[in-house]
Amino acid sequence: MADSETAAAVRQRHRAENKQLQVTLMSMKKTLASLPKKEKKATQAEMVVMQRDHDARQARELADALARSPDGDVASDSDGPTLSGREAVPAASAKGEDGEDDAAIATSTVNTDADVEATRSPPTPSEKDVTAETATEVSESSTASPAPTGATAPGVDGKKKLTKKEKNQQRLQARARALEEEQAQAREEAKHMPNPRKQEDAGIERQLARLKQSRPALAALRMLPIRPDGHCLFRAMGETLRRVGVVPPASTAATTGPVDPYAPAHLRQLVAEHLRQHPDAFLPYIDAVELPTPSDGADPAAALPASASDADRLLARYCRALIVDAMWGGHVELVALSRILDVRIGVVSDVSYIEIKPEREDGTTVPASVTPTATAPGAATSRIPTVYLTYHMHYYGLGAHYNALILDPEVSSTSDVDTHDNANVDANVDDHGSDNDNDDM
């Protein structure tokens, strides 16, 4: 706030700030219904703090402006907004040494907003006792016997009476102090609220510790953060595969140049092709998926013949959303990638560890190494690699997210291959039949 800003200019600026704050709070309020209970409480507390900070700052600015004003009259600009975009409504102060002057102010101020009392500090019992009749009598007596110009008349007890400017400034400062106290209390309460991300991170660390204990070859396993760009599942898989040397196959889609086999777009194309080739294996799991609205408004099912079944139309829409509209991937895509790449995929969350295992044509699973390195490729004892991801619900504010887990080469053991059967070392591992179907971001 500029030092030369007048009280009227402050009120005008406050009006614009209040409108912007209301837009922000309404936007936050609309998101509350979709948030979990713990996040909803945190958001509500944040909204309270924002409103209190806003009101406290405006109270201080208006108080400073009034202090610079020659008359300090809060209600001099009847059209200008005051605190929180409302008209100034000074409450009648308690009777006593300055009761007469306060009562006169109460009769000369018009309340233009019925809601203003909800934002003011509640009046003291002595304020409630000041009736309209008493205020009128005192106002008339004050008019009949005004104080000498340029002097402050003493009170009935001989003490100095405050001017109108000083009283207004004191009231505004008292409101600012009350708002600051409430703000400090809200911050203190927020310190004791649970942090969902910290709780989830602690749960993932516990699951990783159990995994490393059962599989010593994974002692150097660490998390590789993936950016939340809507492709995190595919980007995490690509980064992991690149490091272990597993090269995804080429797709059947026409290309105009070199293709990065680890790029999210290529992996999405491979998954869509696999779903089209094996619809019966995946249709039961995509039937309940809520698909995003096509970016160009086109319906891919419209190109199908009239005899196409509802399942065919659903699959066409699903594959289109996966390739064109960058739909978030989840358990269905992990199962497809496991089969396409011939790898096991281990997913660590804060409450469980599951493994997605590729199946042969006869329904049996393929033996796998517990590390991201295949053993004896092509031999009868060969084992496919196992790659690892972490699944988060609170890592970012937008929803579910996947990160990669990689073996750190600087601290990796001399032999990162464990030849023990997974079934013997990890009795708590679930297969891909788990119902963990959360989508990624």
TrEMBL record:
It comes from Caulochytrium protostelioides. Residues 132-156 have a biased composition (Low complexity). It comes from the Eukaryota. Pfam families: OTU. Residues 53-63, 157-169, 177-202, 417-435 have a biased composition (Basic and acidic residues). Residues 221-408 form the OTU domain. GO terms for biological process: protein deubiquitination. GO terms for molecular function: cysteine-type deubiquitinase activity. This is OTU domain-containing protein. Residues 53-202, 413-441 are annotated as: Disordered. PROSITE patterns: OTU (PS50802).
